[in-house]
Amino acid sequence: MTKSFQQLFPPLDDLLSLPAEQIAPMLLEYLQQCGDPIHRYNLMLQGSEFGQYASLNYDKAARVIQEAWSILHVEGLIAPSGDTSNHQWFITRKGKLIKSRGEYESYRRGYLLAENSLAPELEQKVRPLFLGGDYDTAVFKAFRELEVRVRDSGGFSEELLGVPLMRTAFDVKSGPLTDHSRVEGERVAAQHLFAGAIGIFKNPSSHRNVSFSPKEAAAIIRFADYLLSWVDSIDKDRDERSHESNQAPA
Question: Which of 55, 132, 157, 229 has its CA 20 to 30 A from that of 215?
Answer without folding.
Answer: 229
